[in-house]
Write a structure and sequence with these properties.
The chain has 427 residues and is α+β, with helices and mostly antiparallel strands. The protein is built from 12 helices and 16 strands. It is globular, with a radius of gyration of 26 Å.
Length: 427
């Protein structure tokens, strides 16, 4: 495995070849004209204001808008404009030439370039080495399955889609292959590389589940007196409001493999907690539970979760973040009751809290009790206590000075968009 860093952000855009540019131009123009046709159609055929519009959950229509004679000349002029564009051979800048050279070398290489999980690094490795890592991460929590599970999931998804009136919009389960990213910020990464398994294969009912869960989480979040953070600014506000910082000590925890470790029992407990704040009907529960039926694919096999093949919260699922936040709100409510003397908050799977004037033995007892609490929810954590300073998210907090400053992973090099990138000019 070889660490690769190109020295520029991968968000830079190279100048495309003429053929690729024209194809993209035609595609985008076609989509633009399709939207214009729909606008014209609904303008000429206004909906009855007394008729309730169907809920489509953001799924686009698969229908083609009818042609409009008033738009014919406009559409022809748009396509003629593309056809009549003249291209000049301009000399590329040194940076654009480097983009092209690097892309060419990657395409010609027999090795794979694998992204790091939380840094800007790439790692070059052989196909066999990558497949070994991928297989190892899959077999840790998954076992092989046949095609019957996919057929069953598609059938149930169709029934739900019919009830929602989106059967002509939602697609069946697409067998997209799983992949890994590398956790190069972990200790001893060179000798024992840790990976994050990403599963891009998912039922589109998960898009519906995501929207329903967003409403539930929003309602619970507003009415719950707990610290669930969604951005760095919220953590900074919490830190700023800590009184007598010199008398406090940080404790920091990380929930190991949070998404896949969420059990069906834990999710049900979180849903029961949410029901105390906001109504959740049986239809919503059915959709959330169906979105948990997940399959994982590699080049040759179909895999299902060990232990409970009909329940999984995957990295990459449409509603995974919302499931994580709902469970987090439940955990925080339990912690607030069980550990009333501490101030604690969560950002997804990262937790940060403070204690006041605890002795060494008291701190150790608290640590063991917190570990025991998470074990009761079938979650494993790593925890550090009695600290004056911590690195949390992208900020370093210091209780002795009362100050905070930006933080980056030690092996993460800041990279920027080059001025010669093919980005559209700013207005």
């Amino acid at each position: 495995m070889e660490k690769i860093n190109f020295g520029y952000s991968l968000k830079n855009i190279p100048i495309p070849a003429k053929q690729g540019y024209v194809k993209s131009f035609i595609d985008k123009t076609g989509k633009f004209l399709k939207r214009i046709r729909w606008k014209a159609y609904f303008f000429d055929n206004p909906a009855d204001p007394n008729t309730e519009r169907p809920q489509t959950f953001g799924f686009p229509s698969e229908k083609t808008p009818p042609p409009n004679k008033d738009l014919t000349a406009f559409e022809n002029e748009m396509y003629n404009m593309i056809k009549n564009i003249h291209y000049s051979e301009s000399r590329r800048s040194a940076m654009q030439s480097k983009f092209g050279s690097d892309i060419k070398n990657m395409k010609q290489s027999n090795d794979l370039y694998v992204s790091a999980d939380k840094t800007t690094n790439l790692y070059k490795m052989s196909k066999d080495e990558y497949n070994k890592l991928l297989h190892s991460n899959i077999t840790t929590n998954y076992k092989k399955d046949g095609v019957a599970s996919k057929t069953s999931i598609d059938h149930q998804a169709k029934q739900i889609a019919c009830k929602l009136g989106i059967e002509d919009r939602a697609e069946c389960y697409a067998p997209r292959e799983s992949f890994i990213t590398l956790k190069d910020h972990k200790d001893n990464f060179a000798n024992n590389p840790k990976c994050r398994l990403i599963n891009p294969a998912k039922s589109e009912i998960g898009l519906v589940s995501k929207q329903l869960l967003e409403k539930v989480v929003s309602e619970v979040h507003k009415k719950s007196p707990v610290n669930q953070w969604r951005q760095t600014a919220s953590v900074i506000d919490w830190f700023t409001n800590i009184k007598d910082k010199r008398d406090c000590r940080f404790f920091q925890l990380d929930i190991a493999d949070f998404y896949p470790s969420i059990s069906e029992e834990l999710l049900n407990q979180a849903i029961d907690y949410a029901k105390q704040t906001t109504p959740i009907d049986n239809s919503t529960l059915e959709i959330i539970q169906h979105a948990r039926k997940s399959l994982l694919f590699d080049q040759r096999n179909t895999w299902i979760k060990r232990g409970n093949p009909h329940f999984d919260v995957t990295m990459g699922s449409y509603d995974g973040a919302e499931i994580c936040e709902l469970v987090g709100l439940y955990l925080l409510s339990e912690i607030k009751v069980k550990f009333a003397d501490i101030s604690f908050g969560l950002y997804r799977d990262d937790g940060l809290g403070i204690t006041r004037k605890l002795s060494g033995p008291q701190t150790e007892r608290l640590k063991k009790e917190i570990i025991k609490f998470f074990q009761s929810k079938k979650l494993k954590i790593t925890i550090e206590c009695n600290m004056h300073q911590v690195d949390f998210l992208d900020v370093t907090f210091d209780l002795r000075t009362g100050r905070y400053r930006p933080y980056r992973k030690p092996n993460d090099t800041p990279l920027y968009i080059h001025r010669e990138s093919n980005h559209p000019p700013t207005s």
